[in-house]
Amino acid sequence: MPPVAPLFGISPKTVNRELEHWMSNLNEVQSVINSVEPKLNTTPAKWKALSQHVKEVSEELSQIFNKEDPHYDVIMAGVQASKKFESAEAEISKNDGIRDRAMTRLRKYRDEIESLRREYKERERVRERYDHYRVKLDNLERKGKDQPRIARNQQKLKDAEDAYNAVTNELIEKMENCWKKHVEIFAESSIALWHMSMRMTDEFAQSSENVRPFVDDYLKSMKNNDSSFPSQDYMGADSPVSEPTKEKISNNDSTFDTSELKKTLSAKSVNSTLGHEEHEKQEEALEETV
Amino acid sequence: MPPVAPLFGISPKTVNRELEHWMSNLNEVQSVINSVEPKLNTTPAKWKALSQHVKEVSEELSQIFNKEDPHYDVIMAGVQASKKFESAEAEISKNDGIRDRAMTRLRKYRDEIESLRREYKERERVRERYDHYRVKLDNLERKGKDQPRIARNQQKLKDAEDAYNAVTNELIEKMENCWKKHVEIFAESSIALWHMSMRMTDEFAQSSENVRPFVDDYLKSMKNNDSSFPSQDYMGADSPVSEPTKEKISNNDSTFDTSELKKTLSAKSVNSTLGHEEHEKQEEALEETV
Question: Whole-prediction pTM value?
Answer without folding.
Answer: 0.75
